Amino acid sequence: MLKIGIVGASGYTSSELMRLLVKHTEEIKIELATSETYTGRAVTDVLPNLRGLIELEFSKLKVEELKDRVDIVFLAVPHTVAMSFAPGILEQGVRVIDFSADYRLKDAKVYEAWYHVEHTSSGLISEAVYGLPELHREEIRKAKLIANPGCYPTGVILASLPLLHEELVDLDGIVIDAKSGISGAGSKPSDTTHFPNREGNIVAYKIGVHQHTPEIEQELSQFAGREITVNFTPHLMPMSRGILSTLYFTLKKDISTDGLLDIYNKFYEREPFVRVLNKGEYPQTKAVYGSNYCDVGLEVDARTKRVVVMSALDNLVKGASGAALQNMNLIAGFEETAGLDFPPLMP
Fold first, then answer.
1. pLDDT at site 237
2. Cβ atoms of residues 181 and 242 within 8 Å
């Protein structure tokens, strides 16, 4: 029996994680779910979608008791907060899958520049494995600390890898236009996520300064073997969940859409959660809704000598909780697809 603890368990990503865990095909028990806000209340009072599926009350975190209760902790607290919890949990001999960005970036100075706080446990950065299985599967299996990827970077990286692998595009001047549902901002209400401000409204935000930018650049640079700088512009969309990313690359040689699709299909042929679409088919957020799939499509624009690559994923599943569960399966020795191989919801 694999015993699970969820720290910061009342938010959107934790709700999705519990939705996936309660129907997992292996022997798993959610042993504890902590929440400072809802301590003592039943999980189903706060997350009514789980009624009849889980009997558990939210509790306060007692780090010193974890080693006797759980095998893995999902750390679902905000960026800049996770690093105050992770060291103590790891000292208990418990593996950690961290939803925050606190251990994604390999340079503490880069983290501090983009998140505007001092990194208080930078010694753990070198131990953390970036939790994108399509890139780091074998390292994940052995990891004690997994830095779950950001939602935007997941779609962007998966859309990019085959082009970088085949050295088909100019690595300077990569442009990324990404559009996300409101749930990516978290469950705490704000003026930005207030219904009258979002309904029927699309807006760009954090142009040139979004904190996922260095994460994208780090992973693409490491894969390509040289430094890559991207132009990343995210947008908020009037929908609850989903991300559509559109990437623009300049081709270094002539190649057809069919030729590129062959390359993508070969690159991802063994990846269970990346679906390469047929020629003339483009990703849509509804086609991956509620699932752990990332759909990828592309089109060569011969006139401009560019290729436009698109990816769609559910920001709460493949962009967060589904990826975390995929990582849990790997470190627990389960089938990687366990608890995740179900179709998306559509419409």
1. 95
2. yes
